[in-house]
Amino acid sequence: MIRFEQVGKTWRDGSAALEAVDGEVRRGEVVALCGPSGAGKSTLLRTVNRLVEVDRGRVVLDGTDVRRLRLDRLRRRVGFVFQSIDLFRHLSAVDNVALILRRAGGLSRGESRQRAELWLDRVGMADRAGSLPAALSGGQQQRVAIARAMCLDPEVLLLDEPTSALDPELVTGVRTLLRDLAARGTTMIVVTHEAGFARGVADRLWQVTNGRLVADRPAREAAA
User: Domain ABC transporter, which positions (predicted)?
Assistant: First the structure.
């Protein structure tokens, strides 16, 4: 479904972020990107929905180079959950989700709210639909962010360090939610530093070091 073909990226200062990355994520598969800070994991993730544009090689989604896809259509097909969560602080949980449905999905105010409530229910946040982000725990905010990313029914979900800002006791809830999404056939790429989290969610683990994909192995071997 997603292929990285000799993908390379060099920053303006001449430093290489990615070097000749080759790999494939199959439909319905969950791949965890692991490696040290600065290895290029988040950069590689962001090439899929063109938050980062590649300099060399190409990223292919269902047989088409992502650079040939209209950006708005690409980002409807590829949802993204940022490390910093980035909810609108002045909007309630349900309005954070509904806003995306109106702006990107073209739904009416009533339709968008109904669909937003459905997704909040799916992620276990129906009872906090009217809460502002400041009234939610980090784990609850992350669930709202995942609902917002999934509400347009994307084919792929990208997650950049979804548990990095969470207390350990909240990680289990996010892991369970991602397992549920995987069971529904959602294709996911997840950046994480946590081997246990990768092992609990992913099918495969890609080890990224110095901008290169140096290992591709079953995620159950993450602690090995």
Answer: 2-224
